[in-house]
Write a structure and sequence with these properties.
This protein is 39% helix and 30% strand. By secondary structure, it is α+β, with helices and mostly antiparallel strands. The chain has a single domain, classed as Transcriptional regulator MraZ domain (Chemotaxis protein chec, 3-Layer(aba) Sandwich), CATH 3.40.1550.20. A six-stranded antiparallel β-sheet has the order 1-7-8-4-3-5, with helices on both faces. The protein has a two-stranded antiparallel ribbon with strand order 2-6. It is found in: Cytoplasm, Nucleoid. Belongs to the MraZ family. This is Transcriptional regulator MraZ.
Length: 143
C-alpha cells in the first residue's frame, strides 16, 4: 500500500527522487499521467492494468467518458526509475501540474500523486479539509 507524504526537489533535468518505499511498490517502471486537481497520478504497471480494465467498460457512446479517457490516456507515459532512484517527469506533465522546483509526493493506497508545492499547500488549506467535515463524510460512508 502506498502511504505517506514526502517533499522533494526537482533537478535541472526535471527529475525527482522517488521515496524508496514508493519505488518498492511501483517497481522499476510505472505509469505517470495527468491526475485530477492539477496533480499527477502514478500507478504500478499492475495497478494500471486493473484500472485499464475498469475504464474499458465505460460506454463509448458517452461524451463524458470519451473526454475523460482522452484526458487520462493521452497524458500517460511509462517512466523508468534510474539507479539513483530518480524519475524524469516529462515537460508536458510538469506544465500540467504546475511543477517547477519543489514537489510533494504522496501515497494514496494504490497510486502516488505528485503535486507542485504551491498546489499541495492550497489543497491542504482547502475548506473541505476541516476535521469536522471529514469526520462527517466518514460517518456518511460508514467508515
Amino acid at each position: 500500500m502506498l502511504i505517506g507524504e514526502y517533499k522533494h526537489v526537482v533537478d535541472s533535468k526535471g527529475r525527482i527522487i522517488l521515496p524508496s518505499k514508493f519505488r518498492e511498490e511501483l517497481g522499476e517502471r510505472f505509469i505517470l499521467t495527468k491526475g485530477l486537481d492539477n496533480c499527477l497520478f502514478g500507478y504500478s504497471l499492475k495497478e494500471w492494468g486493473v484500472l485499464e480494465e475498469k475504464l474499458k467498460k465505460l460506454p463509448l457512446t458517452s461524451k463524458e467518458a470519451r473526454t475523460f479517457l482522452r484526458f487520462f490516456f493521452a497524458g500517460a507515459c511509462e517512466c523508468e526509475v534510474d539507479k539513483q532512484g530518480r524519475v524524469l517527469i516529462p515537460q508536458n506533465l510538469r506544465e500540467y501540474a504546475g511543477i517547477q522546483k519543489e514537489v510533494f509526493i504522496i501515497g494514496v493506497m494504490t497510486r502516488i500523486e505528485i503535486w507542485s508545492e504551491n498546489n499541495w499547500l492550497k489543497e491542504m488549506t482547502n475548506e473541505n479539509l476541516s476535521v469536522d467535515r471529514i469526520a462527517q463524510k466518514m460517518e456518511e460512508l460508514g467508515i
